[in-house]
Amino acid sequence: MAATKADAAYSTLRKAIVSGEIRSGVPLDEARISEQYEIGRTPLREALKRLALEQFLIWHPRLPPVVRETSLKDLYRLQESRLILEESVIRLSARRITEAQVQQLSRTADALREALLSGAIYEAVELDYQLHNEIAQGADNAYLEDAVAQLNSGSLRLWHQNYSTITATEDVADRHRTLVTALASRDVEAAADAIRSHIDESLQNQLKLDYRTDHVGLDTRVT
Q1: What are the CA-CA distances from residue 105 to residues 26, 99, 200, 208 (Å)?
Q2: The domain spanning residue 185 has which CATH number?
Q3: Cβ(91)–Cβ(155) under 8 Å?
Q4: Residue-range definition of the domain harbouring residue 183
Q5: Could you give the number of structural domains in the chain?
Q6: 162 with 205: CB under 8 angstroms?
Q7: Which of 19, 48, 67 is the last residue in one of the domains?
Q8: pLDDT tens by residue, 15-40
Q9: Are residues 183 and 127 in the same domain?
Q10: Which of 170 and 120 is assigned the larger pLDDT?
Q11: What's the rounded Cα separation, in Å, for the pair 38 and 104?
C-alpha cells in the first residue's frame, strides 16, 4: 500500500536526518535519496512533505528541501520555548495524569535507560521524544500535546549529538526517572522543578559540544 510505503520512507529518512547521516544545510537530491534508500518517488515525496511539516526540513517553492540547521541563537530560543511550554504542560499533567499513563511513562523511562546503557543511540533519542510526548498526553489537552511534539522535533538531532558523546548515561536516565517520579506523586512543584532542571541540563550539555557564543554575540547566561 502507498501509505505503508510512505510511512516506511518517513521512518527511514527521519532516522537518517536525526542521526546526521543526511547533513543539514545541504540541498537534498531526490533522485540520489531515492536510489540510496531504495524509496519510490511517490512515497519519497510524501515523506519529505511530512518531514517539512514537522520542521525537520525547510522546503521553499521551486527549491530542493534542506535539513534545517540549528544556530546558537536557535538553540537558546528552543530552550526558551521548551521552558515556557513544557513547564506549563507538566504542571497540568501532575494534576491530571492517570495511573495507567504513569505506568506507561515508567515503562518508557525503563526502555530509555536500557537503550542508553546498551549504546542504542537513535532508539534512546526516539524514546526520549516519546517520554516527553507521554508527559504531554497526561495533561489531557490535545493542543498542548501537538505543540510539544512539534517543538521537540527540533531537538532530536541535538539530543542525538548529546547521546553520542555523553559517558554519564546513568545520570541521563536518572533525570528522566525524576520526571516520572514527580508525576507519579502528583507533586506539581517537584514536576516543574524537574522539567526546568532537565531542559537547562540539556542546553548546557549541548553548549559543551560545538557551539561558540563569540560567533553570535549572545550572552551565555540562561535567563
Answers
A1: 37, 10, 21, 29
A2: 1.20.120.530
A3: no
A4: 72-215
A5: 2
A6: yes
A7: 67
A8: 999 999 999 888 999 999 999 999 99
A9: yes
A10: 120
A11: 35
HEC string for the chain: CHHHHHHHHHHHHHHHHHCCCCCCCCECCHHHHHHHCCCCHHHHHHHHHHHHHCCCEECCCCCCCEECCCCHHHHHHHHHHHHHHHHHHHHHHHHHCCHHHHHHHHHHHHHHHHHHHHCCHHHHHHHHHHHHHHHHHHCCCHHHHHHHHHHHHCCHHHHHHHHHHCCCHHHHHHHHHHHHHHHHCCCHHHHHHHHHHHHHHHHHHHHCCCCCHHHCCCCCCCC
pLDDT tens string 65-106: 999 887 778 888 999 999 999 999 999 999 999 999 999 999
User: Within this chain, do residues 58 and 155 fall inside the same structural domain, yes or no?
Assistant: no
What grid cell was written down for 102? Answer: 504513569
173 plus 99 within the same structural domain: yes
Which grid cell is 3? 501509505
Q: How does the average pLDDT of the chain come out, rounded?
A: 89
**In the prediction, which pLDDT does 172 show?**
87
Please tell me whether residues 59 and 155 are part of one structural domain.
no
pLDDT, tens only, 180-215: 999 999 999 999 999 999 999 888 888 877 544 333
